[in-house]
Structure formats: structure tokens, C-alpha cells
Design goal:
With about 190 residues, the chain is mainly α. It has two domains: about 1-50, Orthogonal Bundle (Arc Repressor Mutant, subunit A); about 55-185, Tetracycline Repressor, domain 2 (Orthogonal Bundle). It has twelve helices and no strands. Helix 5 (about 55-75) runs parallel beside helix 8 (about 110-130) and helix 6 (about 80-95) packs across helix 7 (about 95-100). The protein starts with a helix and ends in a 7-residue tail after the last helix.
Length: about 190
């Protein structure tokens, strides 16, 4: 008789997601294999397919979860600068989600749950730009949004890849980001 462990798992979906996030964090998304994740979860090699169908389905679930967590992280931030800080914090606290979320070639970009989570996160980002004074938004609020997103995403990506180690030094990356955001999103005074 086979072990129950082969057929039953308390929360297989969560176990596979957690194992996948560990693999992505240490080896990158290319290293993912449903067979390896099943082995790590202690279930049959076919078991993860019941929840995710295939590798792309698993990555879609990771991106969807990531955008939901991201929207939660941004919610209720008092201003655009603090939304940027939370963006950076999210990237450092959820690096595997962050890696997958911004690589749409990895997942099913038309998945309805993903689209809903992505839309919610985008709304939180836009809300920060909407609260900027007119002088801070310039003539085109969409471009102000792109500038804010570029700053936060670029800073987070450079931080995660270790490219800011020397520039940041021993300082708190969130404080460094606040200073950078103040340089860019503080309206210029009279000359």
C-alpha cells in the first residue's frame, strides 16, 4: 500500500508555491520544474499539475499572488514617496514574486485573476500620482506616473541585483529612496 503522503497533502497548492518561490529566489524562474517541486513537497510528480496544469500556470499563480500582495503593500500609503518606499520594500521582501511579476513572457498575461490583481496594483500606483500637487505632476500625469514607476522599479531592481551596494553603503535603502524621490518629485522653486 502506498503512503498517504503520496496522495494527500494538507495544502499542496501552498507547498508547491512556497517551494517555487524558494527556487526562484535562489536560482531564478528558469530553474523551475513541476517534477522537482513535487519531489520537494513529497508528492507524486503529477500532483502539482492538478493545481497549476503546467509550469506557466504555476508562474501565473505566482504573478497573481504577487500583484495582490503588491497592491496590499501600496494601499493606504500617505503619498507618492511612501508608495515608492513600499514598492522597494515589497521587492526586497518578495524578490521571487517581483522577478516573475515583471516578466510577462513567463505567465498567461490574459488570465482573468491576474488581470484583476494587476489592475488593483496599478490603481494603487496611480492613486499616488493623483495626490501629487499639479506642479509635481507636470503637464502629463501619465508621464509623472511613468517617472515614479521607473524610479521605484529601477531602484528596487538595482538594489536586488546588488548594483547599489556601494552607493547605498550601510544606509537604509528606504531612506536612500526617500531622498532620491525628494530630488525628483519636489517642485522647483523660483530661480
Amino acid at each position: 500500500m502506498s503512503s498517504d503522503r503520496t496522495y494527500h497533502h494538507g495544502d499542496l497548492r501552498r507547498a508547491v508555491l512556497s517551494a517555487a518561490l524558494d527556487v526562484i529566489r535562489t536560482e531564478g524562474p528558469a530553474a523551475l520544474s513541476l517534477r522537482d517541486l513535487a519531489r520537494r513537497a513529497g508528492v507524486s510528480h503529477a500532483a502539482p499539475a492538478h493545481h497549476f496544469k503546467d509550469r506557466t500556470g504555476l508562474l501565473t499563480a505566482i504573478a497573481t499572488e504577487g500583484y495582490g500582495l503588491f497592491a496590499d503593500a501600496l494601499a493606504d500609503a500617505p503619498d507618492l514617496r511612501e508608495r515608492g518606499v513600499r514598492y522597494v520594500r515589497f521587492a526586497t521582501e518578495h524578490p521571487a514574486h517581483f522577478q516573475v511579476m515583471f516578466q510577462p513572457d513567463l505567465y498567461r498575461a490574459d488570465d482573468p485573476e491576474l488581470l484583476a490583481a494587476k489592475d488593483r496594483a496599478s490603481g494603487e500606483l496611480r492613486a499616488g500620482v493623483a495626490r501629487l500637487p499639479d506642479a509635481g505632476r507636470g503637464d502629463d500625469p501619465r508621464l509623472a506616473g511613468v517617472a515614479a514607476w521607473s524610479l521605484a522599479h529601477g531602484f528596487a531592481g538595482l538594489l536586488l541585483s546588488g548594483n547599489l551596494n556601494e552607493a547605498v553603503g550601510g544606509r537604509d535603502p528606504e531612506e536612500v529612496f526617500r531622498a532620491l524621490a525628494a530630488l525628483i518629485f519636489t517642485p522647483a522653486g523660483p530661480n
